[in-house]
Automatic annotation (TrEMBL):
Protein name as it appears in the record: Response regulator transcription factor
Response regulatory domain sequence ranges: 12-127
Highest taxon in the source lineage: Bacteria
HTH luxR-type domain residues: 156-221
Length: 222
């Protein structure tokens, strides 16, 4: 007699948003998505940090402009403590909050104008360990980097010298905003090989996700 397999554990999401009506809408969308569970809610950054410590969700859906502790500071603390991956959600497509959130370790950035399906897909992507940035934000980010407006004075991390030539090539591709499939085609290897290179270079550079690697590559002009 075979033992029936257990269904996969749902993705647990903490929703941090100070406007109650917006928060309720986000919760409604997530609860309607199969395989996703709303682990809890928070109305400000301090509460988000406290609830992340208590609940240990897979993903925190984080607004950036909140009272007591803003979303950037809350993101920085949550990522530093390894409590969860953070998907930043805001109405602002490009300002200091974008760069602050990404540098704080956010795994994704999505506008509040995103469709419900885009929100759910972004949560799944972040939970799977990949980064996601709204396409409108990506275009603005690239334009801002081209103008040098993000402040590139960043020392090269010690791990940079330990990268293999292929890992440096992959890091450069990440700096261009390429996905795994595009990188695989560019350097003529299997997509699975690209994923392995990304994992190794993140470990060597002590970075949490590919978005941080992309920012580093651009900061260093790779």
């Amino acid at each position: 007699m075979t033992t029936p397999s257990r269904p996969p554990r749902p993705l647990r999401v903490l929703v941090a948003e100070d406007h109650a009506s917006v928060r309720a809408g986000l919760v409604l969308i997530l609860r309607g998505a199969p395989g996703i569970e709303v682990a809890g809610e928070a109305a400000d950054g301090e509460e988000a940090l406290a609830r992340a410590r208590a609940l240990r969700p897979d993903v925190v859906l984080m607004d950036v402009r909140m009272p007591r502790l803003d979303g950037v500071a809350a993101t920085r603390a949550i990522v530093a403590e390894g409590l969860a991956d953070v998907l930043v959600l805001t109405t602002f497509d490009l300002d200091a909050y974008v760069f602050g959130a990404l540098r704080a370790g956010a795994a994704g950035f999505l506008l509040k104008t995103a469709e419900a399906g885009e929100l759910v897909a972004a949560v799944r992507t972040v939970a799977a360990g990949d980064g996601v940035v709204d396409t409108a934000v990506t275009r603005r980010l690239l334009a801002e980097f081209a103008r040098g407006g993000t402040g590139r004075e960043r020392p090269a991390p010690e791990g940079l010298a330990r990268l293999t030539p292929r890992e440096r090539e992959v890091l450069s591709c990440l700096g261009e905003g390429l996905g795994n499939a595009e990188i695989a085609e560019r350097i003529d290897v299997a997509e699975g090989t690209v994923k392995s290179h990304v994992s190794r270079l993140l470990a060597k550079l002590e970075l949490r996700n590919r978005l941080q690697a992309s920012l580093l590559a651009r900061d260093l002009g790779l």
